[in-house]
Amino acid sequence: MTKLLQWLLGASVFGVAWGLVVLDLMNLRLPRAYREVAWPMPMYLLVVFGCYSLATIGYRVATFNDCREAAKELQAQIQEANLDLQKKGLKF
Question: What's the predicted TM-score (pTM) here?
Answer without folding.
Answer: 0.60
